[in-house]
Amino acid sequence: MTFGQSIQTVFRKYAEFEGRASRSEFWWWVVFYVLVSAATGLFSVIRFDYGGSMGSILTGLWTIGALLPSLAVTVRRLRDADYPWGHVFWFLLPIAGLIVLAVLCAQPAKSDAPAQAPAPGAEPPAPPAPPAPPAPSAPPATPAPRDDA
């Protein structure tokens, strides 16, 4: 998944906590989040009379606006790595929690489940067909006639 596709997917699924997110989708979102945060911080040179700055306002708005998409893509990434969604609360532990969360999100997908969860009410997939019986290699032997007399 490319950078642009990842950002589009995260914004399209901004409040979707079901399904899975690939590693590329998650890590491209992290790069985008950091870049936008850094760009909004550059506006801190514009000061207001009351002591605040344009950068702090923009960064605050960006952080609030990106909170839900960030949580959603993190939960989907944890699900893809086969971890429960509750691990997202590691971010509440300063520094060490972010490291733990980064390690968990860096893990490859653990299951062969489909990348998308089935739609509610969708028909379950048909079970695989049973294997065909093996073909006989030789015709069965006929029993010899019995002589009971």
Write the layout of secondary structure elements.
Layout: H1 3-12, H2 23-41, H3 54-80, H4 96-105
Helix pairs in contact: 1-2, 2-3
How is this structure best described in words?
The protein has helices at 3-12, 23-41, 54-80, 96-105. The N and C termini lie far apart (83 Å). The relative contact order is 0.13. The protein has 4 helices and no strands. 44% of the residues lie in helices and 0% in strands.
Give a summary of the structure in a few sentences.
With 149 residues, the chain is mostly helical. The protein is built from four helices and no strands. The model has no long low-confidence stretch (mean pLDDT 85).
Keywords:
single chain; 149 residues; mainly alpha; MFS_trans_sf; membrane; transmembrane helix; DUF805; DUF805 domain-containing protein
Mean pLDDT: 85
Helix content class:
40-55%
Find the structural class using helix and strand composition: mainly alpha
Distance between the termini: 83 Å
Rg of Cα set = 28 Å
Helices and strands, in N-to-C order?
HHHH
**Main sheet: strands, sense, barrel:** none
Number of helices: 4
Q: How does the overall form come out from the CA principal axes?
A: rod-shaped
Parts with pLDDT < 50 across at least 5 consecutive residues? none
Strand content: under 5%
Say how many strands there are.
0
